[in-house]
Design goal:
about 400 residues, alpha+beta, three-stranded mixed beta sheet
Length: about 400
């Protein structure tokens, strides 16, 4: 089993130790103040870990500390991994980005688009174009989440038992059948709406490869990259290293909440958010992307495929705030385009926190985040386990503090 370790002093990697001390102090204060249970943060430059800090508890009630080998629910940081799996199959010639999803998942053959009304009075029309694989990868499919509470189609998802994106007891194939039975929120390719699309992409991977999603990821990504702890469940041996999951309380603190059923293989294999991993595991994945598809002699993707993944695919070079559906038009999306499974900085001057052109990233709902900054040859990950009730400042604060530390 691999362990993450610091490999070079910050100064040797062009990072300011005093600025990094401010970064650690900032997040330690959030732990001491009861707003985070604990955290791990790691910065690497030129492929070498130059800053690695753990602080606080992985389980406050049991008094267990965050350790280097702690396991974390990655939630939506699963999406880039599933996207890489799809791109591997793309490069092998199994499909094209412009292929209809229905070629592999027939339930999506005749999509309908929302017109007006709600509930049983909902009016729809046939989609003017098919749902394409590229729409799944770019979140422009017209799919949505039931928990948004911002559009009548969201309510239809809830009525179908999709408040948490999966009907109780259903597997991935069955869940995608339910998605396909519901209207699209908009015409495919005309807006950006973060959604269950990556679950559909995960099912596509299964159908094309003939393997269950967890088996495909283990055989083709996790084991080749040495991501020894990554998977969709934890073994009896791993259970003691899994961090407790917390939610924010009305009083401004945190309290334990139920997490994914990680102890035992889940019936529903979520390509959107089912992965558990260690910091070492995700470091290996980030480094593969930083090196444009290859790590330690193992190549998963060509450089051209990584470049395609990390380029903005929104029409006309738009950012998410301009092209997004109404629920997505928040200030934090300004200056961010979207590639194939990751966001991409396309205008650093208008982002809410310091950033570099071409930086690609994504985050998870439990306040985990990562990014790769090609300009500074930098990878960053921050891991904790808190599901916020509203907008969290951890991501913007982390970006500001990291950029303050870059002196070379």
């Amino acid at each position: 089993m691999g362990h993450l370790r610091q490999e070079v002093e910050p100064g040797e990697a062009g990072l300011d130790p005093k600025a990094l001390a401010r970064l650690d102090a900032h997040f330690a204060h959030l732990v001491d103040d009861g707003r985070l249970p604990g955290y791990l943060v790691a910065l690497s430059r030129h492929g070498r870990v130059a800053h690695l800090t753990t602080y606080g508890r992985r389980d406050r009630e049991a008094g267990l500390p965050v350790e280097i080998d702690t396991l974390w629910r990655m939630y939506s940081m699963t999406k880039p991994v599933t996207s890489v799996a799809a791109l591997m199959l793309l490069e092998e010639g199994h499909f094209r980005l412009t292929d209809p999803v229905a070629r592999f998942l027939p339930a999506f053959a005749d999509p309908r688009v929302y017109v007006s009304g709600s509930g049983r009075g909902t009016r729809t029309r046939p989609a003017a174009q098919p749902l394409l694989i590229q729409h799944l990868l770019t979140h422009t499919a017209g799919l949505t989440f039931g928990f948004y509470h911002s559009h009548p189609v969201d309510a239809l998802y809830r009525d179908a038992g999709l408040e948490s994106s999966v009907p109780e007891g259903a597997n991935l194939a069955e869940t995608c059948e339910v998605y396909a039975s519901l209207p699209l929120q908009f015409e495919p390719g005309t807006e950006w709406n973060y959604s269950v699309a990556t679950n559909v992409l995960g099912r596509l991977v299964e159908v094309v490869s003939g393997r269950d999603l967890d088996e495909f990821l283990a055989e083709r990504i996790f084991r080749p990259l040495g991501m020894d702890d990554a998977g969709f469940c934890v073994t009896a041996e791993q259970t003691g290293r899994l961090a407790e999951l917390y939610g924010e309380t009305e009083e401004g603190g945190i309290a334990p909440i139920a997490g994914l059923p990680l102890r035992g293989r889940p019936r529903f294999l979520s390509g959107s958010g089912g992965m558990v991993a260690s910091a070492h595991d995700y470091h290996r994945f980030m480094e593969m992307l930083r090196r444009r598809g290859e790590l330690d002699g193992t190549r998963l993707l060509s450089p051209a495929a990584v470049d395609l993944m990390t380029s903005n695919h929104l029409p006309g070079g738009a950012d998410i705030r301009a092209f997004g559906s109404p629920v997505q038009r928040e200030p934090g999306k300004a200056g961010l385009g979207f590639g194939l499974g990751v966001s991409v900085v396309i205008d650093p001057d208008v982002t809410q926190s310091p950033s570099s052109l071409g930086t690609f990233s994504w985050s998870g709902v439990a306040t985990t985040t990562f990014w790769v900054d090609p300009r500074h040859d930098l990878t960053v990950q921050f891991l904790t386990q808190v599901r916020p009730t509203g907008t969290h400042t951890v991501g913007p604060d982390l970006r500001r503090l990291v950029h303050e530390a870059i002196v070379e």
